[in-house]
Amino acid sequence: MTSLTSDDVNATPYEVWGFLFGPTLGPRCLNVRVSGNEDIWIPGTQYLFAPDVDVMTTRVDVGGRVYVVFFDLARHQTERQNASYVFIRVRPAHLTPLNIRAEVDLQDILRVLLELANRFPAIGGAIAPAV
Fold first, then answer.
1. Where are the domains of the chain?
2. What is the pLDDT of residues 81-98, one digit of tens each?
3. Checking phi first, is residue 101 left (phi over 0); if not, alpha (psi -120 to 50) or beta?
């Protein structure tokens, strides 16, 4: 479905406002690409995650609004206070990226974090996110 890199040369590029949650917090202008088979990824190095991190991606629907989340699953499950998350809002039908507006989407982002905590529970006594 999604990844951080891909070789699809026919993918459509977008520049969109996403949202970072973690040690760095706030809106961020991101370059993303969407291919015809509904893959979405963040090309190149935009310094969102450490180079040695295996990034997990999932979609979460919050009341008809769909978010694609890129995150470090290992940190999410073991040390959430140091985990990073990149949120991109997309159209439900075909993954076209939409700008996140913090004043509108922040409650949804918090709900997405709660959903991630349910889907991918803590391992070894990790702290749940304070939301």
1. 2-119
2. 888 999 999 998 888 999
3. beta
